[in-house]
Write a structure and sequence with these properties.
8-stranded mixed beta sheet, 8 strands, Aminopeptidase
Length: about 200
């Protein structure tokens, strides 16, 4: 994966740009939009914990296991980046296969159901399959997060299995993790479905 380096991915509704520490204030405001840290099924940092989360992601980037992005809304006419609306990443990067997981994603409440998340997934998947040349891209979510599971399945990912008592949630309880993936030969159909959904949002 010689192309595994910070890069900006441009869409018509969203721009994904490499995470930097200067994004801190904008990310705090985005998280406050809906007080996302109070949602049980997410791991959105509190305003007080945002700097620590930025540092964590950048440390993992330095180690080669994560490529973090800040999501900004985009002007549909010019593509110019606007306000910060959230975060997403390539994570658990396996450079030998190569394989990535798309995750650690959250979006401000006002940006949800606007098409930005669909386009973010499209941009990340396209880059993973067409630039990184991944044979597979993975998604994971909480077993009890039915909204997330339905969304992942809706854009064409297949469920691989469930990792039982896989990790601990913020409240200390053990969580079961559902694993999904898209294989490279499935990408054209997934791509067309995402493009169709993005057109409906236009």
């Amino acid at each position: 994966m010689t192309d595994l380096k910070p890069t900006t991915l441009h869409g018509t509704r969203v721009v994904l740009e490499p995470l930097v520490r200067e994004h801190h204030d904008g990310l705090v405001e985005a998280a406050r939009d809906g007080e996302l840290w109070n949602l049980w099924y997410t791991s959105v940092p509190t305003p007080e914990g945002m700097q620590q989360e930025i540092d964590r992601r950048l440390t993992l980037q330095d180690r080669g296991s994560m490529l973090p992005f800040t999501a900004r809304s985009a002007d549909e006419a010019t593509g110019a980046p606007g306000r910060i609306i959230g975060m997403t990443t390539y994570m658990n990067i396996d450079q030998d296969t190569p394989r990535v997981e798309i995750g650690s994603t959250w979006n401000a409440a006002s940006a949800q159901r606007t098409g930005t998340n669909t386009e973010s997934k499209y941009l990340l998947l396209r880059h993973a399959f067409e630039v990184f040349r991944c044979p597979a891209v993975e998604f994971r979510t909480h077993w009890l997060n039915h909204q997330s599971r339905e969304a992942i399945a809706r854009f064409g990912a297949k469920q691989d299995g469930v990792l039982r008592s896989h990790t601990r949630a913020r409240n200390g309880e053990l969580r079961d993790t559902v694993v999904y993936s898209i294989l490279v030969h499935e990408w054209p159909m997934v791509r067309d479905g995402l493009l169709h959904r993005m057109t409906r949002h236009a």
